[in-house]
Recover the amino acids of this structure.
């Protein structure tokens, strides 16, 4: 399910990026592509229609921020809306001084016990007084596992290794913690039974005695399409209030989240990113969609848009857009591109480049930019201002000064000339244009 969604959405984006211009047909086409991809991912048809309708409307009507190419803006809209479908970034509204009981649900191995201990620590760090109950009577050692993992956060754990009745354990646990002034009580449960029906029945009984304020469904992020049915089964027993997706540190991309979120109407609240007790994060839907689409964080695109907007009036950009770029301008543009991270991150986060740039090419580019720095440092002021004066003997001198070959100097001059034309043609697309001229677009 995840793979088809990923492939479908990426193909839709590729089409946009490859198109000559943006028109109504292209946007309709995008809408259809996205619709198909989401439907294939078992997303509820009503949701699919609503999402694609919003994408279409926004793509047709919204004006991109200054400096952001319209195509990138449309890709950003797609990001926004798919992320919004997964829910806004939300956290349960814990109230200090009032006990919030959290019931952990999920099949064996999904990461319930680990997540209980992670949450115990995470919430303790936020200043809440946390306690835990181990009510998994099926797995030998489950209580010990919870206790050991909670040691570091000094969260006390109630359990009864001899009891075979989770409801009894929970009742006794709640009683034991009474008067301790807990803000949060985490209840870890079993995830396996001889039969799934029995497991769901047990959860129903547990929910009755625990009376949870929040039931968190723990989903193994490496599992895809089965998540929907699993989530629906648990949801039928206990109203699921939030989802935790685990194992996102492995190759998992967490596609099951979509299915689980759709099946329960609940939002993903936390993600597990490792086996250690502090490997937990609040869920961010934009980051998740970025991961799903393999494009890094959309934030990089937004940052670029903002920077372009702020710079729109500087002398340098006036020179550049007027076709009067100097070599130093050219170099500072390159530097600009690598600001706030490596060139690789920058390129990977730009819709339209992700996936189309091979690793080798990028290494190559970073190497070339370094070389160019040496070359530019070996130029005289008038050469930097008007590179046309650089003849064969000057080329030789510059090459010697920079410790590089004459062909490197020539390559820089050629790229500079190409970029100059591109910049003049379209200021807004300066970076893309530059990359393309370097043979990367
Ligand atoms: N890599 C990784 N492993 C995890 C994560 N969460 C849980 N695990 C591992 O998954 C296995 C099952 O976890 P456990 O908490 O016992 O699952 P439970 O049966 O639902 O209680 C254990 O080996 C955990 O270390 C995670 O976020 N990342
Ligand atoms: Mg467990």
């Amino acid at each position: 399910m995840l793979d088809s969604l990923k492939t479908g959405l990426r193909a839709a984006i590729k089409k946009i990026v490859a198109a000559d211009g943006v028109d109504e047909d292209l946007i309709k086409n995008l809408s259809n592509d996205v619709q198909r991809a989401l439907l294939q991912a078992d997303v509820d048809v009503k949701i699919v229609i609503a999402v694609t309708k919003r994408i279409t409307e926004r793509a047709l009507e919204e004006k991109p921020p200054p400096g952001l190419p319209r195509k990138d803006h449309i890709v950003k809209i797609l990001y926004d809306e798919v992320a919004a479908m997964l829910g806004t970034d939300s956290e349960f509204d814990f109230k200090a001084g009032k006990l919030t009981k959290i019931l952990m649900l999920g099949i064996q191995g999904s990461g319930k016990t680990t997540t209980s201990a992670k949450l115990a620590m995470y919430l303790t760090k936020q200043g809440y007084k946390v306690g835990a109950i181990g009510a998994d009577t099926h797995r030998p050692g489950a209580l010990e596992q919870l206790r050991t993992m909670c040691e570091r956060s000094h969260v006390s754990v109630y359990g009864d290794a001899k009891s075979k009745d989770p409801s009894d354990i929970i009742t006794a646990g709640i009683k034991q913690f009474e008067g301790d002034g807990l803000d949060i009580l985490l209840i870890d449960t079993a995830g396996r039974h001889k039969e799934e029906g029995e497991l769901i029945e047990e959860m129903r009984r547990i929910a009755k005695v625990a009376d949870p304020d929040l039931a968190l469904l723990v989903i193994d992020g490496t599992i895809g399409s089965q998540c929907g049915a699993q989530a629906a089964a648990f949801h039928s027993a206990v109203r699921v209030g939030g989802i935790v997706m685990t194992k996102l540190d492995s190759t998992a991309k967490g596609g099951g989240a979509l299915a689980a979120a759709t099946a329960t109407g609940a939002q993903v609240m936390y993600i597990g990113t490792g086996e250690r007790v502090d490997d937990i994060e609040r869920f961010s839907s934009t980051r998740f969609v970025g991961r799903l689409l393999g494009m890094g964080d959309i934030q990089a695109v937004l940052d670029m848009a903002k920077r372009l907007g702020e710079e729109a009036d500087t002398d340098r950009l006036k020179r550049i857009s007027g076709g009067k770029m100097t070599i130093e301008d050219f170099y500072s543009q390159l530097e600009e591109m690598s600001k706030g991270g490596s060139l690789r991150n920058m390129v990977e986060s730009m819709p339209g480049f992700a996936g189309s740039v091979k690793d080798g090419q990028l290494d190559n580019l970073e190497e070339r930019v370094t070389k160019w720095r040496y070359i530019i440092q070996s130029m005289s002021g008038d050469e930097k201002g008007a590179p046309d004066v650089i003849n064969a003997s000057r080329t030789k001198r510059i090459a010697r000064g920079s410790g590089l070959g004459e062909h490197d100097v020539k390559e820089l001059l050629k790229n500079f000339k190409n970029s100059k034309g591109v910049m003049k043609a379209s200021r807004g697309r300066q970076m893309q244009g530059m990359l393309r001229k370097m043979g990367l677009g």
